[in-house]
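Dear support,

I submitted the protein below through the web form. The confirmation email said the job was done, but the results page showed an empty box. After a refresh the structure appeared. I'm attaching both so you can tell me whether what I see now is the final result or a partial one.
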Amino acid sequence: MTEEGQEPTTTNTTRITDTALIFEGGGMRASLTSGMVVTLLDAGLDFDWVAGISAGASNAVNYLSDDARRARRSFVEFAADEQFGGLRYFARGQGMFNAEYIYQKAGGPNEALPFDWETFDSNPSQLRVIAFDAESGDEVVWSRKDTPRIDDLMIRVRASSTMPGLMPPVHLNGHVYVDGAMGDDGGIALSQAQREGFEKFVIVLTQERSYRKAPQRFPAIYRGIFRRYPALGEALLTRWKRYNETRERIFALEAEGKAHVFAPERMPVDNSTRDLSRLAAAHRMGLSQARCELPEIREFVGVSSSAVSSSR
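What the results page shows now:
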């Protein structure tokens, strides 16, 4: 048994080619949904197309690197790292979350949160990471062709995860990028999966089913804060509507039998929680719920409990 009672990841996998796997973001709420990453890896369910936005991008790349331990550590133990962030880093202009360290340093070999690039790179599954161009107001979608090296991948995961106002924007190839949650679907990559032809979806949400996002109060303040990037300011102010509409589409797909939706039964943390005991409890909750839903997921994707194929 691995830490927190996790069963070892199976060495056999079943490849799933007709269903998109989509991870929502939500900062440290991914401590709970990382339990779904662990469960899917343990079960050997190998999705051929995976998308993530913001913290969901971290879940996606951890899943594609076949690293259940890192999936948990990324959103539980790593929060205790003194370089993770805080007011001291925010005052220095490095962000409430020290993104350069989190994404571009800690994942290197022999660093605090090493990323298994070789396993990720050898995995044939498709990846989509979505960010938002703060100047043009356009959504950008990155795939494996944009990430030939670990540095190319991690700066894009960082860009997708850059919460406006709390973290400095990412400057890359002449563009200024922030959190992909400002984009078309408000933080859940449903439209991109549909544009690529998918009609079946496993969607991992980080808010409860009853949740609805409210409009931002004091819009003039937001427009003032982001006056340098007016398209970003408007995207922030209208995100609530796009997000709620996307969730309505998701639950409609579920009602039609076209989606399996993992929505937390209860979300005990918020996007900035750093209390390790609360994060660990959230992860355990996610593991428990994901394992309970696993038979339904298997049935949805057409995989029997005994069906396995050769490993990658």
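Response: this is the final, complete result; the empty box was a page-load delay. The chain is about 40% helix and 15% strand.
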